[in-house]
Amino acid sequence: MHRSCYFLLVSALLNLPDRALSADHPNILWITSEDNGPQLGCYGDKYAVTPSLDALAAKGMRYTNAISCAPVCAPARTTIISGIFPPSTGAEHMRSMVPYPAGLRMYPQHLKDAGYYCTNNSKEDYNLTKPGTVWDESSPKAHYQNRPAGSPFFAIFNSTISHESQIRNAINDKDRIHDPAKAPIPAYHPDTPEVRKDWAQYYDRVTMMDTISGKQLAELEKAGLAEDTIIFYYGDHGSGMPRSKRWPYNSGLNVPLIVYFPEKWKHLAPQDYTPGGVSQRLVSFVDLAPTLLSLAGQEIPSTMQGKAFAGPQQTPDPKYVYGFRGRMDERYDLVRTVRGSRYIYLRQYMPHRIYGQHVDYMFQTPTTRVWETLFKAGKLNEAQSLFWKTKPSEELYDLETDPDEVHNLAGSPEHRAVLEEMRQAQQTWAREIKDVGFLPEDEIHTRSGEGSPYDMGHDPKRYDFEAVFAAANLATSQKSSDLPAILALLGSPDSAVRYWGATGLLVQGSAGLESGRAALIKAADSDPSDSVRAVSAEVLGRYGNQDEAARALKILVDLADQTKHSVPVALLAANAIDYLGDRALSAQDRILELPMKPAGKAERIDGYVGRVLLTLREEAGVAAPAQPAKAKRPKAK
Fold it and tell me: Do residues 347 and 426 lie in contact, with contact meaning Cβ atoms separated by under 8 Å?
């Protein structure tokens, strides 16, 4: 009798509604989308058609100052999963792979400690190795419906329909609902039929994304879980159009973020939460993991660099949030961003590279190609031309008066105080997180050894941050008066400082060569660091005499062989060869023979040197090498 009652009780518990068994923890649903900014009706965009997300915003709250930290998917998602800035973990480059910091965990692992069933459907794209099992399910079939009875869930459903690639592919006529003639064109884009078509199709894809989001919300409602579930919707960075995606302007970082807290869980809501309301709080992707742990009642690890904006551990509004840009596919760059409520500041650490470097994937979009063609033909105005020119060291924009960010106020006397404050904020942030992005990519790996770049960056014996950071700021000042001090950097015992010394001379062009000719020849020939050799050789190759250029080209072709050197070194050298232009023609045969793939494993970066080499082939009018035929898959039985 007693045993029968026991089994009846167990059976009854197993069949209780989920809300009774997970009463202590809210379910949490994230609906995410790719490559779209706040081009939604609820954000005041009259061209947008987004009824599902508009309805969510009407009962929830939308953030107007949310940013993704990174303007491209892999480092943005790496920020979210770790709660740590990728420049701190060494994971800023698109794409890359580095070890996770020793002893730390990703946020789903903390949620599972609280009893959550964690699912991801389905994109991961992390630049960090996973420290053990992270998700209960991570696949196109992952779903909260698969959770054990009584378990609260955390679930992500990610839509790819608004991705950059969908702007330029075929779309059904029934989905073409936006008139290109009415498309809003930002001041930096030329107004052409191609550009209008791309923007219109982008909005078409956002509408399709909204439909998918609506179905996911309806599914939650049908399951009877809507009033037990906290909902977040956000896009993973700005639109997939050029100068949004990949660029840490507001156009590339600003994302839609809508949150909904049902009545049952309003005590966990942000302090400024109002149904149908708007929050001006500055929020960034590094804040998402701490916020989740706050909502789940888990202690936020001190190593997480974000701040919770909901739950019992929420913090006061920050004054600034931060963004970054590292290598984008096959092209190197280094930018840091500070975003306030009104102004955005950018510090360019590779000002000698144009904004619109040739990233193959970006150039597949018709807008990019026609934009460059018009620039070369001299048919663009000043705002439209900037993307194809080299960069100032600092940029400052007033987002209230200049939302398209085309009027740089860095030289404005009236804005000097704002500039200096935001410059200081960027420097303080870099110090706090121990930004390892100031190391050449090869050294991020070699200095870390078998460990993580994060741990290396916090070890002053392996990374003298202050010395390297000071060198980077000096080298990229673009001030001729700094040339003697920049040249002195080449005598440092620290290879990263020498790297910035060579970079500083490259930034100064012919004047840099004249100031440091002998030191550059020595560095290109025999510096222990291949990264220093590559940059020094680029200076000689671009600005030296005929003999110096030939000598430099030979060094660069050797370094660009990724069967003999690391992929980051080969990529640095291949880029340098590309920037030599006609000065590289004498070595064309040797360049065309360079290996397209590395000899060993190079996870997530093994195709980037090949992309630069393909660009060099196209510029030389040489066909791409034949690819080996793929083995046919056996027919399914």
Answer: yes
Residues 404 and 186 sit within 8 Å (Cβ to Cβ):
yes
Cβ atoms of 259 and 26 within 8 Å: the answer is: no
Express each pLDDT in 143-182 by its tens digit.
Answer: 999 999 999 999 999 999 999 999 999 999 999 999 999 9
Residue whose tokens read 């018709």:
366
Give the pTM: 0.95
Q: Is 5 a catalytic residue?
A: no
3-state helix, strand, coil split of the chain in percent (to 5) is: 45, 10, 40
Contacts of 44 (CB under 8 A, 6+ apart): none
Q: Which of 145, 81, 153 is nearest to 116 (CA)?
A: 153
Q: Report d(CA 423, CA 526) in Å as an integer.
A: 36
For the chain, first and last CA: distance in Å?
54
> Among residues 5, 42, 69, 73, which one is catalytic?
73
Note the pLDDT tens digit of each residue in 183-202.
999 999 999 999 999 999 99
Selection from 406, 411, 463, 413 nearest residue 440 by Cα:
463
Q: DSSP state, 108? A: H
* Residue of 314, 318, 249 whose CA lies nearest to 280: 318
Alpha-carbon 137 to chain mean position: 25
How do 343-348 and 394-398 pair as beta strands? antiparallel
